[in-house]
UniProtKB/TrEMBL annotation:
Pfam families: Chromate_transp. The chain crosses the membrane at residues 95-116, 128-148, 160-188, 236-255, 267-286, 306-326, 338-360, 380-400, 412-441, 447-464. It is a multi-pass membrane protein. Belongs to the chromate ion transporter (CHR) (TC 2.A.51) family. This is Chromate efflux transporter. Keywords: Cell membrane, Membrane, Transmembrane, Transmembrane helix. It comes from Sphingomonas agrestis. It is found in: Cell membrane. It comes from the Bacteria. NCBIfam families: 2A51 (TIGR00937). The keyword Membrane applies. InterPro entries: Chr_Tranpt_l_chain, Chromate_transpt.
Length: 465
C-alpha cells in the first residue's frame, strides 16, 4: 500500500451497488474459511477479496472502517467484516458477515475441545500439544517484535510499553486499568499537541494498486441506511444490550453468583468491554484471571488453547471458547460434563462476540465524526504502545511455563511475580522453541509449516524417545 492516498473527488449521490445478498453470503463464507493467521492476515484476506478482487469497496473507505474498528474493544477483523457487511446490506448484512467470520472457528475449536478432554492423555495427542506449545511461544515473541516495531516510534511510546509490562508482570495490575491509563495519557497528550503522541501504524492492507472509492460497487456516496439516525441507533443498541445482558442476568438470578456459568458470563462480558489491543493482549488478561483467579485452566492448557486457535480459522480470541469449555467441563453443575462444556463454550462465544455488533451498529453511522480526531487517534496510539508491554508479559509468562517444569512465587514489597526454577528446565521444549524461533526470524517461515513441524516433532519425541 502506498504511503498516501490521493483524495477522491467530492462524494456523489449513493447508487445501487448491485451486489446481491446471496452473493455476499457466499463471499463472506469464503473469507471466513481463509481467515487464518491472526488479525493482520485476516484483514489482508478481506482487502484482497473485497477491494482488489470484487471491488465492492474502495481503499479509502476500507481503511476508514478499519481505523474505526481499531478504536473498539474486541477483535477488529470480525468487526470490520460486520461493518462492511452492514454498509452493503444493512443490519442483516452485518449480522451475517460477523457471524460467518466466527462460525467456522467455533465449530472447529469445539470439535478439537472434545478430542482434547476425551483423548488428551493419549501419548500422540500429548506429543502434538507439546510441540504446539513450543511453536506458539515463538509466534507470540514474533507478535511482540511485529507490534513493537510498528508502534514504539519514540521514547514516550517505549516508556508506556515498559510501564505496562512492569505493571502487569511485577505488580499484577489488571489489564483494564492499564488500558484506561494509557488511553488517558494518549488523549491528554494528543489534546496538548505533543508530537510523540501522533498516531500511526496499525494493520494495513497489502501493497498494490489503490482502488478508488468511485470505481467500486458501493461508490463514494453514503448509503441511505448509513446516515446518522439517533432513533435507529438507540433501538438497535437496546435490542443488542438485551440479547447480551439478559442471559447474564438470568444466570445470576437462577444459578446464583457462585455458579460456574455465572462466572463465565460475567467475566467474559467484562472482557468484551475492555479488550483493546488485539488477541495477544487479551490473552494476557484472560490468563491472569482464568489461571490465577478462577483456576479454570492451567498455564499449559492456556498454551494448548492458543495452539488450537492458531491452527483454526477465525479470530484468535476464540481461545476464550476453549477456556469456557474446560471451566464448565470441570464444574458441570449437575449436568453431564460434555453437555456443560458445550454450553460453557457457547455462552463464552455469545458474550464475547455479541457486543461487537453493539459497537458497530450503534457507532458506525456516526463514525465520520471521529475522522481525523487527533486526541482519539493519540489515545489509540498510547493503548497500542501499552499493548506491546502486555504482549511481552504474555511471552514471558508462556516462556516460563513452557520451558520450565516448576515455578516459584517471589514477593518484593508491592511486587509479586513468578520466577522459574532453573533446575527444572525442559531441554526438549527449549530445542523445539529455539528451532521454531530460527524458522520464524531467520527463515521467515509461515505459521502453518512451523506449527505442523513442531507438532509432528513433539509427537515423535513423546512416542519414540
Amino acid at each position: 500500500m502506498k504511503a498516501t492516498i490521493i483524495a477522491s473527488e467530492a462524494p456523489t449521490a449513493p447508487r445501487d451497488h448491485g451486489v446481491s445478498f446471496a452473493e455476499a453470503v457466499t463471499v463472506w463464507a469464503r473469507i471466513a474459511a481463509l481467515s487464518f493467521g491472526g488479525p493482520a492476515g485476516q484483514i489482508a484476506v478481506m482487502h484482497r477479496i473485497l477491494v482488489e478482487e470484487k471491488r465492492w469497496i474502495g481503499e479509502e473507505r476500507f481503511l476508514h472502517a478499519l481505523n474505526y474498528c481499531m478504536l473498539l474493544p474486541g477483535p477488529e477483523a470480525q468487526q470490520l467484516a460486520a461493518y462492511i457487511g452492514w454498509l452493503l446490506h444493512k443490519t442483516k448484512g452485518g449480522l451475517v458477515a460477523g457471524a460467518l467470520f466466527v462460525l467456522p472457528g467455533f465449530l472447529a475449536i469445539l470439535a478439537l475441545s472434545y478430542i482434547y478432554v476425551l483423548f488428551g492423555h493419549a501419548p500422540v495427542i500429548e506429543g502434538l500439544f507439546f510441540g504446539l506449545k513450543a511453536a506458539v511461544l515463538a509466534v507470540v515473541v514474533q507478535a511482540v517484535v511485529r507490534v513493537g516495531s510498528r508502534t514504539l516510534r519514540n521514547n514516550v511510546m517505549r516508556g508506556i510499553a515498559a510501564a505496562a509490562f512492569v505493571a502487569i508482570f511485577f505488580l499484577g495490575a489488571p489489564f483494564p486499568m492499564i488500558v484506561l491509563l494509557a488511553a488517558l495519557a494518549g488523549y491528554l497528550g494528543g489534546r496538548a499537541g505533543i508530537s510523540a503522541f501522533k498516531a500511526g501504524g496499525g494493520h494495513g492492507p497489502s501493497k498494490g494498486e489503490i482502488v478508488q472509492d468511485r470505481d467500486t460497487a458501493l461508490g463514494e456516496g453514503l448509503p441511505e441506511h448509513a446516515r446518522p439516525n439517533l432513533g435507529w441507533s438507540l433501538k438497535i443498541s437496546a435490542l443488542l444490550l438485551f440479547l447480551w445482558l439478559a442471559p447474564v442476568a438470568l444466570l445470576f438470578a437462577l444459578a446464583g453468583p457462585g455458579n460456574v456459568f455465572s462466572h463465565i458470563a460475567g467475566f467474559f462480558s467484562q472482557m468484551a468491554v475492555v479488550t483493546f489491543g488485539g488477541a495477544y493482549a487479551v490473552l494476557a488478561y484472560v490468563g491472569q484471571q482464568a489461571v490465577g483467579t478462577y483456576h479454570w485452566v492451567t498455564p499449559g492448557e492456556m498454551l494448548d488453547g492458543l495452539g488450537l486457535a492458531e491452527t483454526t480459522p477465525g479470530p484468535l480470541i476464540m481461545v476464550t471458547q476453549f477456556v469456557g469449555f474446560l471451566a464448565a467441563f470441570r464444574d458441570a453443575s449437575g449436568l453431564p460434563p460434555l453437555v456443560a462444556a458445550t454450553l460453557g463454550a457457547t455462552l463464552t462465544t455469545w458474550v464475547t462476540f455479541l457486543p461487537c455488533y453493539l459497537w458497530i451498529f450503534a457507532g458506525a453511522p456516526f463514525v465520520e465524526r471521529l475522522r481525523g480526531n487527533r486526541a482519539l487517534s493519540a489515545a489509540l496510539g498510547a493503548i497500542t504502545a501499552a499493548v506491546v508491554g502486555v504482549i511481552l508479559n504474555l511471552a514471558v509468562w508462556f516462556a516460563i511455563h513452557t520451558l520450565f517444569g516448576r515455578v516459584q512465587p517471589v514477593r518484593l514489597g508491592f511486587a509479586a511475580f513468578e520466577l522459574p526454577v532453573l533446575a527444572s528446565l525442559n531441554l526438549p521444549a527449549l530445542i523445539l522453541a529455539g528451532g521454531a524461533a530460527v524458522a520464524v526470524f531467520g527463515y521467515k517461515a509461515g505459521m502453518f509449516p512451523i506449527l505442523f513441524a513442531s507438532a509432528a516433532l513433539g509427537a515423535a519425541y513423546v512416542l519414540f524417545v
